[in-house]
Specification:
Length: 132
């Protein structure tokens, strides 16, 4: 049966690297605590390694599946949307320039619920030359 005060080589708690020839005397509870601490450190390192591997996998997947970064794609979509909005605004301006009373006619049409009256308002407002 081994003696409780048996000398063993154990790394120090201070984080310094212990010389392999250095021996210390530890009681069994201290050994258990030390082993437990080392196991927890090992588990933490394994978890960290898994996390880093997953980050590497994500980066590799992004490189494989996307020729251009996502922010460039989103930026191009935003610029295209701005161009489309400017074109639509220009079309609306030219439309209202050709039909200056369109807003007034639309407002008058909204004041009634009768479809025939709406059509009459629209016809009179949009085709004033044919009302004579």
């Amino acid at each position: 049966m081994p003696n409780v005060t048996e000398a063993v080589a154990v790394p120090p708690d201070s984080g310094e690297i212990m010389d392999t020839g250095q021996l210390t005397q530890e009681d069994p509870s201290a050994k258990c605590a030390r082993i437990s601490k080392l196991q927890k450190q090992l588990e933490c390192q394994e978890i960290r390694q898994i996390y880093l591997k997953s980050l590497i996998n994500i980066e590799e997947r992004e490189v494989q599946h996307a020729v251009t970064p996502q922010w460039k794609t989103l930026d191009a979509e935003r610029k295209q949307l701005e161009k489309d909005m400017k074109l639509a605004a220009g079309e609306l301006r030219s439309f209202f320039a050709r039909f200056p009373n369109l807003l007034e006619v639309t407002y008058q049409m909204s004041q009634t619920s009768d479809d025939f009256e709406k059509l009459d308002i629209f016809y009179k407002g949009m085709c004033p030359s044919s009302n004579e």
